[in-house]
Amino acid sequence: MNLPAPLTRPDDCDDLLSLCKAGGDPLRLNVLRALSHASFGVLELAQIFATGQSGLSHHLKVLAQAGLVATRREGNAIFYRRALAHSEHVGGRLHAVLLEELDVLALPADVQARIGQVHAQRAAASQEFFARGASRFQAQQDLIAGLSQYRDSVLALLDALRFPAGATALEVGPGDGGFLPELARRFGRVLALDNSPAMLELARQRCLDANLQNVQLQLADALDATGETVDCLVLNMVLHHFAAPAVALQQLARRLKPGGSLLVTELCSHNQSWAKEACGDLWLGFEQDDLALWASAAGLTPGESLYVGLRNGFQIQVRHFQRPAGELHPSTNRNKR
Q1: I want to staple 238 with a disulfide (CB 3.0 to 4.6 A). Which of 6, 149, 173, 266 is the partner?
Q2: C-alpha span between 175 and 144 (Å, rounded)
């Protein structure tokens, strides 16, 4: 007895063929591995893989046609990131398994080193901006989203969490220290970290003026995993200054005690490229789904979110993520094979 063959649309086969073709090249597979928790422009990827821009652009086009990478415009530059797999689509399960298998493989050491160089170049540009314009930063920041525009929303989430007396808080990148008095009133001890001496001096003066006895300021790299753990970690308009935001969230999650909370205030994705020049922003805001995805990869679970619309067209997202109680270490590392 002959059974009829399943009906398959021609374009379904084309989708599968495109996916298989895109995954059949070692350079393209390494590009997908490099984009695991980061996004890069074509010039940065050409530097990372020590290859020509035109050839790399061709590989990125193949990956994009297969739905394996997505693009995002940052001013005049286009950045590439991995696209999410959708299991309900043709090839969706193959897409998901391909990325899962890639994520247990380590990139070649030379490629990892050049990724580090790209991140260092981004970080140097950010530090140079703050060293050059610390005194003007707050006025420039107010052009986009000053503390007064999101303070109440952050405090609403903070107070709803009901931290116990004596709890500890860490604010990364406190700017001129405008939020430190609020933290000092709610926590037994507050630590504030910044890698800019000029910005930290502004925060120090704020603490002196407000007589904040329980605030400790440190000139330090917030991504140093050897720092103490805290009950609450606050990132107010800071993440867009990190060279690799997804990696930063993974590192910062390690600073949370089990059951600890991460509060992130950030701009939603926008196209106001002047913010890079005026405020030293490395990223033009973030997609809500990206923040949730990065936090999940850092071992954090999502909590409440608030969104604040601004008259100048920007939108602020205030997000709460929590490290599961009883967890000894965030589940950010996977076995390499």
Answers
A1: 173
A2: 15
Kind of pairing between the strands at 315-322 and 256-267: antiparallel
Distance from the Cα of residue 159 to its chain's centroid: 25
Dihedral sign (CA 84, 89, 94, 97)? positive
CA distance 303 to 317: 13
- CA separation for the pair 125, 122 (Å, rounded): 5
The overall pTM is greater than 0.85: no
**Residues 87 and 216 grouped into a single domain:** no
| Mean pLDDT, the chain, integer | 85
Specify the pLDDT at position 3. 54
**Structural domain tally of the chain?**
2
Taking CB atoms within 8 Å and a gap of at least 24, the contacts of 273-281 are 273/74, 273/75, 273/76, 275/144, 276/74, 276/75, 278/140, 278/143, 278/144, 279/137, 279/140, 279/141, 279/143, 279/144, 280/125, 280/126, 280/129, 280/130, 280/133, 280/137, 280/241, 281/240, 281/241
Look at residue 64 and tell me if it is in a domain.
Answer: yes
Residue 169 scores a pLDDT above 80:
yes
Check residue 330 and give its pLDDT: 47
For 28, the domain range is 10-105
Tell me: do 100 and 131 sit in the same domain. Answer: no
Residue 214 reports pLDDT greater than 60: yes
Q: Which of 19, 29, 44 is nearest to 105 (CA)?
A: 29
Confidence of residue 119 (pLDDT cuts 50, 70, 90): confident
Q: Which of 134-148, 150-164, 198-212, 316-330 has the lowest mean pLDDT?
A: 134-148
Residue 72 main-chain phi, psi, to 5 deg = -145, 135
Decide which of 318 and 196 is more confident: 318
- One DSSP character per residue, 133-197 reads HHHHHHHHHHTT--GGGTHHHHHHHHHHT-PPTT-EEEEES-TTSTTHHHHHHH-SEEEEEES-H
**Is 43 inside a domain boundary?**
yes
Degrees (nearest 5) of the Cα angle 253, 321, 249?
35
